[in-house]
Amino acid sequence: MELFQVDDDGRLFISPAIEDWNSIATYRIDTVIDLEGGLDTCIPTLANSCLYIYFPIDDDDEQLPNVSTLQAIARLGASLVRDGHRVLSHCGMGYNRSALVAGLILMELGMSGADAVARLRERRPGALFNDRFAAFLEAPPNGS
Fold this sequence. Notes:
alpha/beta
């Protein structure tokens, strides 16, 4: 399984589905944002070892997922990144849903939406082929 680092500090990553925790443990990930259906059974369950956020969303619907929930997850992710945590946003293939949330986190960290889209596409070739997700990042509501 390949992780794609999307920030410059090595604290924010996107990936396809996690099948084996050992394959990502070397990155010292301590926060996982799971956006695909089905809970990841390989996430460590030791106390104080991993924050696991489960918010399955579709990337083929006509509508965006709940925007206020997405923005809340992004604020939390950005806060954790700022505090030195390593955050992984993942979905089934690691292209759209994971990139949407990672893009929102990058924006919370001060990057413009257009720059976030460009960064994600550079770091994960093929990312954000869902035009609705890319357009949302480039022009979010209320200038977020």
